[in-house]
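Honest question from a wet-lab person: if I give you the sequences of every part of a complex, can you actually get the arrangement of the whole thing, not just the pieces? Trying it with mine:
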Amino acid sequence: MIRGDKMGIKIELPEQKEQEFREKAMRKFGYQKGALKKAILEAINFWILQEKGREEKVAHPTETLTGVLKGIQESSVELQHKATKLFIAR
Amino acid sequence: MLDQARSLECKELLTYLETARPCASTNLFHVFAIILIIQHKTQDVTKSKLCTEALYSFPGLTVYHPSLSTLLLAFDQQGQTSLDFDDCLILATMKELQTDSIVSFDAHFKKVKGIKIFSPREALNFLRTPPKSLRTSSP
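Yes, you can. This is the full assembly:
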């Protein structure tokens, strides 16, 4: 369906997912016409926002990450728990 | 990253994820943890930025951004286990993503029932030759 500058996208969802989406959309935007559209638009905007910046990819990410923290004695597990403490301390 | 004893198998898994279809996920919390450690250890903002971009550059790896339901699930997990919140957030993410498999060196997860812990090498072997029941015919 094309109306003015608006384009349509047709998708198929698993039934359970469709029902869950419909129910949550109605709860949030009201049990009325347009609720699904609002929810879909919100979901698409959110997804686009999440994906933004990914276009500028690092060509060889493994190489980029290799040895960044070379020489540190603590293990990755210790560092992860340390990060939590650092986060709390800030 | 740390260039320690098992760095080679970590590197092999990451290299695989450079060309794979989305097949693995990490949590935004881990990205934050890595940024905090890099900044704490190196005080290098440029390095932090580059590493963050690198983490988002693996086609085979999705960074999961926890939702409110994931956070609430993590609290539930915390009530049921003796694990810290950060580990519970990982368990909650696994539930949300409907997976029971994790790649980790963290011994805390051994106490958790119903999950499979893989080393990077085991995960790589699994991804390269998945069991027949999990193979799809799509290209």
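Two things worth pointing out. Chain B has a mean pLDDT of 89. Residues 21-64 of chain B form one domain.
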